[in-house]
Amino acid sequence: MKLHLGCGDKSIEGFINVDIRPKDGIVDLVDDISKLKSIKKNSTELIYACHVLEHFNRFEYLEVLKRWYELLTDGGILRLSVPDLGKVIEMYNQGTPLTKLMGFLYGGQTYEYNYHYVGFDFETLKNSLLECGFKEIRLWDWRKTEHSQVDDFSQAYLPHMDKENGTLMSLNIEAIK
Predict the structure, then answer these.
(1) At what angle do helices 122-131 and 61-71 cross, to 10 degrees?
(2) How does the average pLDDT of the chain come out, rounded?
(3) Most buried among 54, 75, 86, 94, using CB within 10 Å?
(4) Residue 101 within a domain
């Protein structure tokens, strides 16, 4: 089983697409991705969560990671994408207007759940994953995944959509149970 958590408007074929908001033809399972009560422990080979972990506050997100760890089979992969706070700071220091960076910092704020509460850099997220029991933590390239055809926030660049010359603004990190 493969889970695509917080899928929003993006459905990935071969995955169970999960979101808290129902969307006909996109969302396969309406559920709170922090709980996933209908998913059994040790039943999932891959969890993909793109730009959703930052929607939990700094006191919640570790519990969310621990729950996702429980769901994975031994050797299962947690593939995360979050806004890269280090890149946001770098771009700001290079003169990028704050207005172009606000979405990475605070979320889209277009509906109830679309707010960011915590930011990550590689070391912070790596240490959190290690604390939850994960191992073999590494960066992943969106171009080399089975879902590379899905244009989601794992492919967020500045300037927008400049995937050849722009700066990747997503921290794409995966870990093994």
Answers:
(1) 60
(2) 97
(3) 54
(4) no
